[in-house]
Amino acid sequence: MAKHEHVRVAVIGSGFGGLGAAVRLRREGITDFVVLERAGSVGGTWRDNSYPGCACDVPSHLYSFSFAPNPDWPRTFSGQRHIRAYLEHVTDTFGLRPHLRLNHEVLRMAWDADALRWDIETSGGAFTADVVVAAAGPLSDPKIPDIPGLAGFEGKVFHSAQWDHDYDLRGKRVAMVGTGASAIQIVPAIQPEVGRLTLFQRTPAWVMPRMDRAITGAERWLHRAVPVTGTLRRGLLWGIRELQVSAFTKRPNELGLVENLAKANIARAIKDPVLRAKLTPSYRIGCKRILLSNTYYPALAQPNVDVVASGLREVRGSTVVAADGTETEVDAIIFGTGFHVTDIPIAHRVVGADGVTLAETWKGGVESLRGATAAGFPNFMTIIGPNTGLGNSSMILMIESQLNYMADYLRQLDVLGGRAALAARPSAVGAWNRKLQSRMERTVWKAGGCDSWYLDANGRNTTLWPGTTGEFRRETRQVDLAEYEVLRAPAKAPEPVAAGKSATKRGTRKTQAAQAAQTTEVAR
């Protein structure tokens, strides 16, 4: 890495997490940073997911930064186009364009223990950084299951996050694989135009009505003229969701009433008892994310739609075969099968202080300290890290809490002065995660009787936060230095004066001297 650009902070990703980090850095007076983005524009998951019907299931005024309110949201639940436009607006309003390095995919980054910095190799050039803030996000790398025969399918295949807008679905026989948040939006959007739609449903989802409507011109005028009204609206939306948390995290049986409402929602739209039985989950509502739609069930009841209550097992030529043996001829296969959440791909590209990758460190399960830092990876932080996800509220709230933690982390480095780094203590990481997993046992996500993408291969929920967003904000308000080791750059070893010594011996002495000079401060 002979030629490189050195920055104080390198941010990875330009979705809500990355742009939020960039804004916070500027507000902290830090301008020596770059935002490394693998694509050609900002937006993250709201850039990549452009499938028909794509929209947010969190109210617009809550799904936006508190420091960048938008009085002009057109609907109570915004679509992908408006959310992406909002992120472009944030980028321009806060002067982030000069910091962007678009088409710079991070290929590898490694911790230099001597220089106390990160060496970063990207597709667009090399960088070094004192601190790295990884905001790649858990919904950034699509996951397509390994289906026997799929490679030989002669029709069209794509994932919901890689929608092929050039492919005309009109009159086609289409297989939709999956019944998650993307699928319930795609199905009603494409059902009227396809010839035949076959939904492969491994597990049915609980779906509640979507209380969506156009925001009136009077409301938008009021929010522009009297900004505090927008703040109050956001606060009300937040407060309602905070009151719901205990049912998810402490008393899952209280969700029985909500479950009855969801069953009534199915009954209103689905008159066929056989189809209704297929679409009724057997697990407690809330165990998987509760989905919102007014059009999903009516679309499934249409004569050109078939619901196969089984996952996809194999592909034989143009025939897709379900696990229950059902065979269907199709022209296109659309996967709405989610993302690599508990096996984050970028972790394979991050090499820590011990020379092992973050993926190797997390082989037994992802875990971090306060969702932000991992043992063995000094001056490396994650936004939307392990156990920071939510089951009923806005992730922007969690992101802003993590930005508070990031800001204090950088302040602590300033106070320490000189070449310094903070390394999360393994004992602190372990204690934090033991407490999390203990609390997780009584949540609906563990006790609700389902197998969800929240759980890793060992059955641990390493995705969600088992508390309120207010509690998480208190836990991440500032850095507790007792949970970290302070690393100092090693003193430079003197050059040997004796001639004729072997390079190996000189190198060994230099290393020993550096190790002897390196000091580790234990914060009081």
UniProtKB/TrEMBL annotation:
Extent of Low complexity compositional bias: 511-524
Gene Ontology MF annotations: oxidoreductase activity
Region (Disordered): 492-524
Enzymatic class: oxidoreductase
One of the Pfam families matching this protein, by short name: FMO-like
Record InterPro entries: FAD-bind_Monooxygenase_sf (IPR051209), FAD/NAD-bd_sf (IPR036188), Flavin_mOase-like (IPR020946)
Xref: SUPFAM superfamilies: FAD/NAD(P)-binding domain (SSF51905)
Top-level division of the source organism's lineage: Bacteria
Keywords, comma-separated and alphabetical: FAD, Flavoprotein, Oxidoreductase
Enzyme Commission number, as recorded: 1.14.13.-
Assigned protein family: Belongs to the FAD-binding monooxygenase family.
PANTHER family recorded: FAD_NAD(P)-BINDING DOMAIN-CONTAINING PROTEIN-RELATED (PTHR42877:SF4), L-ORNITHINE N(5)-MONOOXYGENASE-RELATED (PTHR42877)
Protein name, as recorded: NAD(P)/FAD-dependent oxidoreductase
Organism: Streptomyces solicathayae
Taxonomic lineage: Bacteria, Bacillati, Actinomycetota, Actinomycetes, Kitasatosporales
